[in-house]
# Entry
Amino acid sequence: MVLALNGSHLSGNLRPLALEEPRALGGGRMIAGSWPPRSLAKLGPSPPPSALPTASPLPSNDSQCGEQILSYGSAEKVLIGAVLCLITLLTIAGNCLVVISVCFVKKLRQPSNYLIVSLALADLSVALAVMPFVSVTDLIGGEWIFGRLFCNVFIAMDVMCCTASIMTLCVISIDRV
# Structure
């Protein structure tokens, strides 16, 4: 975001509030919670717009956040899709191996390893419930296609699974001290 500041008219705490015209922030759309241009005009005149490049969203984006939709070529989509699928599959396979090894190897069935299994299950839930949908969303340009209801479910699963993984890491670190 480029600030349009005129040092002779703005001072003190008002300087951070001055913004360039909303066009520069995303194709003429206002960012949610920002001041309309009429309110900014009262703060003082702004210098001419700078020559910095600005990102503008594609017309099909219904978002009012001024975010840019990512667009990849066919080769990039194949490469990125292959890498994301490989990461997801390796995450699933690696965490399954941890759970299976602790369950079937008698020497590994110790209370301290149960926390490792808990971490593997939390990471497995991230790999199954979060990573595939994020990968698809990234590949199609950042637009959510799975519906509003599943968007809310997805956000809840993302927060819950990632928090479980982080909290398990915290417990493991406390256990190791």
Summary: The mean pLDDT is 75. The chain has five helices and no strands. The two ends are 45 Å apart (CA to CA).
